[in-house]
Design a protein that fits this description.
This protein is an alpha+beta fold. Helices cover 41% and strands 12% of the residues. Strands 1-4-5-8 form a 4-stranded mixed β-sheet. Strands 2-3-7-6 form a 4-stranded antiparallel β-sheet, with no helix packed on it.
Length: 441
């Protein structure tokens, strides 16, 4: 443990020294991300030949926290850094890495995920979007749904069936698809939260160049599993967030030409005040922390069942954190823990669900009120005297999503049971059956 802490301190010191030389709040966002991305600090967990530093995920969090604590702006937010970059770094050619990953870490391009379909959600391999080869490009037709952040995306991680007569899990390819073309029609989906983070996407004779196929042709299922593994690890409990400014990348959001200092959250600390103690990773906040204060404030903490649920919530957060540390130590020793990303995702879902339930119990009748706009929130705050209520009810409305997105709870359990514990697979069609001969959803 002491050795790990020393290594983390050294990494944080190195980041701070680099920031003292390079951080300039008067740069544009694009200029700053160019420095940060090319240096490897925007995405330090990527390999060194993919604009990273080859650090572990946990050490990557140390880097992000060091940047936030310094007062600088970190790497681009969004699915490009979280999903597309590690997938392309694993399966792409060096030319693809130099093109796509560079534009991701420098914030030039924002990405979305074109995986799920109306008839292929939990059964993702049942997708029917077709890509047909036409010379040096592919022509794509189909529909995608639950596309997060599609409205600000320049490129999409597209799964399409390129060999319909091959077995179900083969004959799929992973493409980098241009979202700006006329063959891509994106329509927002309004959620019960009042937001429209998700979209449905219609692909009508959309064109994708052949050199945008990531990984081997017709072997996109293996590439997709890399994307999904990164998604589950990123969504899971215990991964830890860095905090600090989250700036949307890409050409649509309009941030690249803005002054980067306008997004900074704090002034940089002076070099003379730097100490080893300040580089120690901060303890992660308990997922129960806000609710504990809320319960104390309105008297609900006197209810023993609410206190019990708050303790359960804290324990879930600690278990997620300890699992993350255990996984880090195991990987540092050259091993791995099968299914940890799936377990972390299940923990995250349990935490959000319990936050919903205990939060609404603490709120009492006020939990039936919600603000969907800024003006409504001001009115709600004035009427209730509770500035936290909109966050409590927003969490409650949002809590229905985590059991579904990133792979349903049932899918996570199936993966753990079949791939980790070696339990028998559920009965199904012969995996060698051509997809075109399978019954459709």
């Amino acid at each position: 443990m002491d050795e790990t802490r020393t290594d983390s301190t050294d990494i944080a010191e190195e980041v701070r020294a680099w920031l003292e030389d390079q951080w300039d709040p008067d740069l544009t966002v694009a200029q700053w991300w160019e420095r940060l991305g090319v240096s490897g600090w925007a995405a330090p967990s990527l390999p060194k030949d993919a604009f990273g530093r080859g650090l572990s995920r946990s050490d990557g969090v140390v880097v992000q926290r060091a940047i936030a604590e310094f007062g600088a702006v970190g790497g681009p937010s969004g699915l490009g850094l979280l999903l597309a970059a590690p997938t392309i770094a694993t399966h792409g050619t060096q030319a693809q890495i130099d093109t796509y990953v560079r534009d991701i870490v420098t914030g030039q391009q924002a990405w979305c995920q074109l995986f799920s379909e109306p008839g292929a959600g939990s059964d993702l391999a049942g997708l029917t979007t077709r890509a047909v080869r036409d010379g040096d490009e592919w022509v794509v037709n189909g529909q995608k749904v639950w596309t997060s952040l599609g409205s600000t995306a320049d490129l999409g991680m597209l799964l399409a069936r390129t060999a319909p007569d091959a077995p179900k899990h083969t004959g799929i390819s992973w493409f980098a698809c241009d979202m700006h073309q006329s063959g891509v029609d994106l329509r927002p989906l309004r959620e019960m939260t009042g937001h429209a983070m998700f979209n449905e996407v219609f692909l009508t004779d959309a064109h994708v160049p052949h050199d945008a196929v990531i990984g081997d042709l017709n072997q996109g299922w293996a590439v997709a599993n890399t994307t999904l593994a990164n998604e589950r690890a990123g969504l899971g409990a215990g991964g830890g967030g860095a905090g600090g400014a989250m700036v949307t990348p890409g050409t649509i959001a309009g941030n690249l030409s803005r002054r980067v200092g306008d997004f900074a959250t704090a002034k940089p600390e002076k070099k003379k005040t730097r100490s080893k103690a300040s580089t120690q990773p901060k303890k992660r906040r308990s997922p129960a922390e806000l609710l504990i204060g809320y319960a104390k404030g309105n008297g609900a903490a006197a209810d023993p069942t609410i206190r019990q649920d708050l303790v359960r919530l804290h324990i879930l957060g600690e278990l997620g954190r300890l699992n993350s540390e255990r996984h880090k130590a195991t990987r540092a020793a050259g091993g791995d823990i099968g299914g940890m990303a799936n377990i972390a995702k299940l923990y995250m879902r349990a935490i959000v669900g319990l936050q919903r339930d205990v939060g609404l119990r603490i709120a009492g009748p006020q939990g039936m009120l919600h603000a969907y706009t800024g003006e409504q929130k001001e009115a709600l705050d004035a009427a209730t005297g509770n500035p936290f209520l909109a966050m409590i009810t927003g969490t409650a409305l949002y809590a229905q999503a985590p059991p579904i997105y990133g792979g349903t709870d049932q899918i996570q359990r199936n993966i753990i049971g079949e791939r980790v514990l070696g339990l028998p697979k559920e009965p199904g069609a012969d995996p060698s059956t051509p997809f075109s001969q399978l019954p459709k959803n």
